[in-house]
Amino acid sequence: MGSSPKLMIKKYFGSASIQQMTVDLEEAKGFMEYFWNQDGSGVVVSIDGQKINSYDELVSIVSQDRYKGLDFVEVGLFLSNDGKKSIWPNRS
After folding, report:
1. pLDDT tens-digit profile of 53-83?
2. Cα(7)–Cα(44) distance, rounded to whole angstroms?
3. CA-CA-CA-CA torsion for 62, 67, 70, 73, nearest 10 degrees?
4. How far is CA 74 from CA 4, 10, 27, 85, in A?
5. How far apart (Å, rounded) are the C-alpha atoms in residues 87 and 7?
6. Which domain holds residue 42?
7. Rounded to whole angstroms, how far apart are CA atoms 20 and 6?
8. How many domains does the chain have?
9. What is the percent of the chain with per-residue pLDDT over 90, rounded to a whole number?
10. CA quadruple 22, 24, 28, 31: dihedral sign
């Protein structure tokens, strides 16, 4: 995994500004595991708009040819509205 790009993890919730950190793939395993268990429910992990459901899936995606040779792959952390009532009116 030494040739894998680093992950630039950006958190898009919880503060007025976007928070970010850069980790390698191995470091991400411990850090991101929180978001894939029940304690981190409500947070969606995403790369290029694709929801990532596990560390193994993250490794598989980052290993794809389109990410080879890149220094960084941007990983977004977003709050999910799944199962929550919206404060906005439904527009049909």
Report:
1. 899 999 999 999 999 889 999 999 888 766 5
2. 16
3. -50
4. 13, 7, 15, 29
5. 33
6. 6-79
7. 13
8. 1
9. 39
10. negative
Rounded distance between C-alpha atoms, residue 86 and residue 39, angstroms? 22
CATH code at 17?
3.10.20
- Write the CB contacts of 87 (distance below 8 Å, at least 6 apart in sequence): none
Q: Global pTM? A: 0.75
Q: Please tell me whether residue 84 adopts helix, strand or coil conformation.
A: coil
The full 3-state SS of 12-54, as one line of letters, equals CCCCCCCEEEEECHHHHHHHHHHHHCHHHCCEEEEECCEEECC
Judge whether 1 lies within some domain: no
The proportion of the chain whose per-residue pLDDT surpasses 70, expressed as a percent, equals 78
In a domain, 70, yes or no: yes
Rounded-to-integer distance, Cα 82 and Cα 65, Å:
32
Residue labelled with tokens 């990983």 = 75
More reliable by pLDDT, 56 or 15: 56
